[in-house]
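fwd from M.: "can u put these together and see what the complex looks like"

so here's what she sent:
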Amino acid sequence: MNSGTSAPSRAERLYRRLLRLYPGVFRQEYGAVMAQDFRDGVDDTCGRGLWVLLGFWAYILLDLASSVPAEWLAAWRARPAEEGKMAGANLVAAEAETAGPLAPPLRRGEIWAGVLPFILLGLMNVFFNWPIEGPLAALGLQAVGGLLFLIVPSTLILGGLVAGWVRGFPRWSYPYVSYAVLFSLYMTQAGMPPLRVFGRVFGYRELWGLYAFIPLGSAVLIALLITRSLRPLWELVRGAWCDPLRVSFALYGLLPFWGYVMLDELSHSYTLPFTVVFALALCGGAWGYMRSERAVPQLASLATGAGSFLAFLALSWILYEPIMGERITEPLAAVLAWLIVLAIVILPGTLLGLLRRGVRALA
Amino acid sequence: MVAPRDPESLLPLTPAVFHILLALAPIERHGYAIMQEVQQSSHGKVRLGPGTLYGAIKRLLADGLIEECEDRPAATPGDERRRYYRLTDFGRRVARAEAERLAGLVGLARARQLLPQGAPTPATGWQATRVGRLGRE
């Protein structure tokens, strides 16, 4: 058994870094003795073969995987109620103790932070759908759309996600999270031939696949390095539970992407005015939501923004045949799609809010 | 005056917690020694990692089942950084109550002919030894 006086090995240094995954209080209390015990384990394992060493590491990683979430849960349960944070034995009990307002009134900067993704993504959709023929094409703004398509999701949205993480995922940050995740998922099925990355050229049938998650993963890593804590993820969940309309706001954040996909294959001369209307509708809904402190006006803002956006989207499909001479869908299907997507955005937050209210009544 | 706590109120114990209490029943130990003792006494079937061990120790300390030793045994140089733990009287009563609970279950299993009468099964042999030790204390 090692006395603990010699310099830490590379394995122990790695384990000490992994110990940062635990909550700070737990790490301060037991980190040193855990590292000491790990060192003893390494000493006992050394010289007994590769398989024993691999088994030891597998057992250490399994131990981390099971105990880190358990300690975060324990730390979260132990938080004092007077700090306005979670306390109690579980989500239900904790919820019963935190019936007060979740956060102080928003500052103007936070309101703009919540609206900003809809402005940026709206502009991106407008310019990305800029006509490539006809009189407007001469302005050459489609290049701006391409530039925004590269910059907005990969830099500004992910930057918002990192900022949201650092600040414990306040209300404004939810659309950044949902859009970043959805965009990564979408890009797994997309390719960019003949893009050259570090000397490698993308083939014409090649997809990004799991590489599409590298930007999101990098953003999460940066956020982790800044905060050195997984606590913001708890705040993300807690925020959704205590303020359920944040779930709807996150889903609302997917609508710009929905609009982009739905109009992608249509004539840009036709879709341009619709993209302007979409952007205005979604920005208006987000602005109303961020400015409101109470649930009913917040829900009304989201419903109005999403409803008008989806209604115009359905209208754009229905009018395509009489104007462009090509049918893309049945009017009834367009209306049904409008209602279904609206329900997908509005209902989760509403139902979660009702569930929360029921739980509080029982508690 | 604080009312005495009922050991039964903490039952059933998780396997990890019971193993730790069993490891500390005869002697005070530091964390790594507890891990080794649990692994050896369970014939390798139970392995506690540092995270699981100290998570359980934290809760056992909070519940008053174990305590940290201030007068630690003299050992090799550098050992002063280790932290030794021992059972409290209450922890011993809780461990005994859990052992009795498990023994009752084993008895029930025997009565239902799920286990052979008489000799302990290989799976319960080490536990039976520990139960006997606890029972004599």
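replying to her w this: The interface with chain A takes residues 30-32, 35, 47-55, 57-59, 76-79, 81-83 of chain B (CB under 8 Å).
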